[in-house]
């Protein structure tokens, strides 16, 4: 990103319809504080409603200023956004650095025929303040901009180079034929059964609790004096302790399951993954809020198959892209790298095989040809041996022993109820199962030009990373790893999370993987090590 201060012509404003959306967004954002002013003023006999009206008016003015102080332009070389009232800033993105274009339409946007465009680059995803957003353009202009930035043909690029830098690009002809596309995946109604197992409803619980807490705090409300709350608390207090715990757990499970299912439908309804002839993957999803993400396949460096514990119990998984210029998926409903929502694991594996580019001729640890090797998402993995198994049990039981010792100490000296440490002691078999599952999840392979690594138990992940996308290798050995003759090998890349680990692998195997994954990279170090020895 380049921040410069300029004054030039040919700057364009966002859609005037944003004069409705921006003030509304500001009022919604400040709703708890405005409601608190109203309640506090009314309860004290003051003019609380006048303060609330003044606050709403201020939010409306701030929202309108966002439209008046924001302009943008698109040249053959750059995408620029100018914003600010007292301090004017121009954020410039070179068009050859554009990696993704994310088009989002919230409910109010869709009612007014608008869309928000976010241009992703290799640096914009690491710096929140540097992301280039256009909120908002008309839906037609957003679609045209997405095609222009990512679906440029060589002829169009050459033609654009002859245009003056101060001129805005010309829109494609209205009657032009859209690029050919191939559908790779589509949302199926039976996938909704995976919604309750995503546990995304826990976020809803936190949001609702936070909103209610802030509203109560701002309005100085005593919930204990509210009739329904008093009756519910009286009914709940009459129960025994085990029944209270069971009731809370049951209510929480039901609420989270319903909220997770509803969130799944709203976030992934109308999901569709397509491949375009220009070499891009296009993801569209959402019912109330629609989102369209376009990823250049030449930026794709691999895929990640994620299987959280509950989702794995019903043979489900989600698929994400490991690509440059796009932040890694965050949760089940966030992140532009998501290629497939929670779905049957077989569907995730099938889509991963369709998405991964061919790696014929790439280095492999096997002597067989690339054509005869298994797909990176289905290839058998090499286990990490007994030393890694002992390390899993040692770490698991070590943490459990520390917790149990702390609970015993608090019970002995501070009078903590005895059921706390008794429960911790009873969970020892569960700790053993967790350690065993973590070891079963460990594995790695080098096949068809991809480094494949798998790890995790509560959230098991399998990553297939293209060796051509690896820019370096990092070998780390802690004190305990050195005693066990193990190491953690990290493949450094510019894509995804910028680093993927092969955990607790034998040191000799780690060196072999690095040498085979990037031939010649470690030769000077290995030769020098031999001379030293």
Query: What is the structural class?
Result: alpha+beta
> What integer value in Å does the Rg equal?
28 Å
| Chain-averaged pLDDT | 79
The total strand number stands at 21
The low-confidence parts are 1-9, 124-130, 153-178, 329-334, 359-372, 528-533
Strand order of the largest sheet: 8-7-6-12-11-10-9
How many individual helices? 17
Could you estimate the helical fraction of the residues in percent?
40-55%
Describe the protein in words.
The protein is built from 17 helices and 21 strands. It is α+β, with helices and mostly antiparallel strands. It has a 7-stranded antiparallel beta sheet with strand order 8-7-6-12-11-10-9, with helices on both faces. Strands 15-14-13-18-17-16 form a 6-stranded antiparallel beta sheet, with helices on both faces. A hairpin with a 2-residue loop joins β16 (443-447) and β17.
